[in-house]
Amino acid sequence: MLAYRHLFHAGSFADVFKHALLAQLVLMLGRKDKPFFCLDTHAGIGRYDLTHAWAQKNKEYNTGIARIWTRNDAPPVLAPYLDAVRAENPDGRLRWYPGSPRIVRRFMRAHDRLALTELNKKDFETLAGLFDGDRQVQVRLMDGYQALKAFLPPRERRGLVFVDSSFDRAKEFTRLTRGLVEAHRTFATGVYALWYPLMEVPAMRVFERDVASTGIRKIMLLEISLLQVNWSGGMRGSGLLVVNPPFGFEVTARTIIAWLHEVLAQQPAAPAYRVHWLVSE
């Protein structure tokens, strides 16, 4: 299991992977004039100080954002995400890393809404302070899986649900699958993005089997693996399940992940990445 407080992992390769894809999902929702709703179920504190002692403990940002944010050879589809990071660091020094709430908010339009939920009381207070006075953003002290019941379906009838659990508890893959099923039952047309760490191969096979057997259609599986499968020193990679991905997302995601793997792989001949339909239409 992972450390609960995300500040330990802020800016890591897993953050780069999921937030670059998240930025594209929000932008694609904005292609239509109709307003959309976003729900971030495990929102954290919204922005992370990489000079904080927790972030400095393992300096995981050195495996992720620190390696790419000043590069000039990134594909154009990565530009929105990288611009979001640079906007937090106008002096050109990497100190602040935007969490998913800041990234989503950056790409919202004037008639879109964002709901953020966080269960840790101290983190909730920090998050609420960050968005104080923002009428388009609602911040609630709430369990992320309860938020799926409380906020769905949204009145807009279109939107994105981002589930980024800390995976600090046992049976989190089961909880994630069950949460998706319950949410999809009330909001079947929504776009869902569910992040997960790559664990032991048998556990991942069970997770894929369980998700595929839910009866939900249009599920895309995206994964990046930067260390060998038998690596035991920490998280070897991460994945994102995307339900109802927007048109064109597959090509965009493949471009992003291929470049990230090339730049961020930590071991020679590390397994590459996967972008495929776990369940098609």
Fold and architecture overview:
This protein is of the alpha/beta class and 281 residues long. It has a single domain, classed as Vaccinia Virus protein VP39 (Rossmann fold), CATH 3.40.50.150. The protein has 10 helices and 10 strands. The strands form 2 sheets. The protein has an 8-stranded mixed β-sheet with strand order 5-4-1-6-7-9-8-10, sandwiched between helices. Strand 4, helix 6 and strand 5 form a beta-alpha-beta unit.
Task: List the defining traits of the structure above.
eight-stranded mixed beta sheet, 37% helix, two-stranded antiparallel ribbon, 281 residues, Rossmann fold, single chain, alpha/beta
- Total beta strands: 10
- Return the CATH architecture: 3-Layer(aba) Sandwich
> Shape from CA axes?
globular
Counted up, domains total 1
Strand content: 15-25%
As an assembly, this protein is single chain
Class based on secondary structure composition and strand pairing: alpha/beta
How many helical elements? 10
Mean pLDDT over all positions: 93
Radius of gyration: 17 Å
pLDDT < 50 stretches: none
Topology as H/E string? HEEHHHEHEHEHEHEHEEHE
What share of residues is helical? Answer: 25-40%
Largest sheet: 8 strands, mixed
Q: Largest beta sheet: what is the strand line-up?
A: 5-4-1-6-7-9-8-10
The fourth-level CATH homologous superfamily is Vaccinia Virus protein VP39
Distance between the termini: 33 Å
Level-1 CATH class name: Alpha Beta
